[in-house]
Design goal:
Layout lengths: L1 H12 L4 H8 L3 H7 L7 H42 L7 H15 E2 L5 E6 L2 H14 L7 E7 L5 H12 L10 E2 L18 E7 L1 H16 L2
Length: about 220
């Protein structure tokens, strides 16, 4: 036992942790704690020991956080998948109400002559195009579109992308423009809006007023 205690003392003075000494000698950590309670490491080794301990602690914390984040992501994806099963094929009535609500939230409502809807989410744009075509019965030649791009986006790439999403011919796209708002300058990540923001327009006084009326009707139900 004295030989192991002596070996444990040497190993401790070399900067070994209780875990490391336990693995080398097979002595329980509770025993090591008793044996080594008065053993002081040399200053230089002590600094190295604490530096190694901090690095290991930081690594363990990082790995723990990564695992926790991965488990949280898996749980979130499962919840989202199960929730997505609650949504079935949209009826005409549901498409009508969803479209009106989205225009109420994201559409330009001050215009007296034109319908304008802007967004960067391709799923939302697809849904609104269904609303315009199936509910509002907008003729294909009345659609116009414009893309607001950012420094990481090419005009040609953005127009090609949104033309496929909307099925609006590229010759009905207005001139692409670039604008970075003061509030987002230097803050937005470069890939956050990979194809910019799309504005879909329809010059149709009757339709914009119908949509405004539908919004008023929806508001009365609140």
């Amino acid at each position: 036992m004295k030989a192991k205690q002596y070996s444990a003392t040497l190993l401790r003075k070399q900067g070994k942790s209780y875990n490391e000494i336990n693995q080398i000698l097979g002595v329980p950590k509770s025993t090591l704690s008793y044996w080594l309670k008065d053993v002081e490491m040399p200053v230089g080794i002590k600094k190295k020991f604490w530096h190694k301990t901090r690095r290991k602690w930081a690594y363990n914390i990082t790995q723990f956080n990564k695992k926790r984040a991965m488990l949280a992501q898996e749980r979130a994806e499962k919840i989202q998948y199960l929730a997505s099963q609650d949504i079935h094929k949209l009826s005409k009535r549901e498409l009508f109400l969803v479209g009106v609500a989205l225009y109420w939230a994201e559409g330009h409502k001050r215009s007296r002559w034109r319908v304008d809807f802007s967004n960067a989410d391709p799923g939302m744009i697809k849904l609104m195009m269904r609303f315009f075509r199936e509910i509002c019965h907008v003729r294909e030649d009345r659609f116009f579109a414009a893309v607001q791009i950012h420094p990481n986006v090419t005009a040609e790439g953005a127009v090609n992308y949104w033309s496929k999403i909307t099925r609006i011919p590229k010759n009905q796209f207005l001139k692409t423009y670039s604008r970075v708002t003061p509030s987002s300058k230097g803050k937005r990540t470069i890939n956050r809006l990979p194809y910019g923001t799309l504005r879909v327009s329809v010059s149709h006084m009757e339709l914009i007023n119908k949509i405004k009326g539908w919004i008023l009707g929806l508001e009365k139900l609140i």
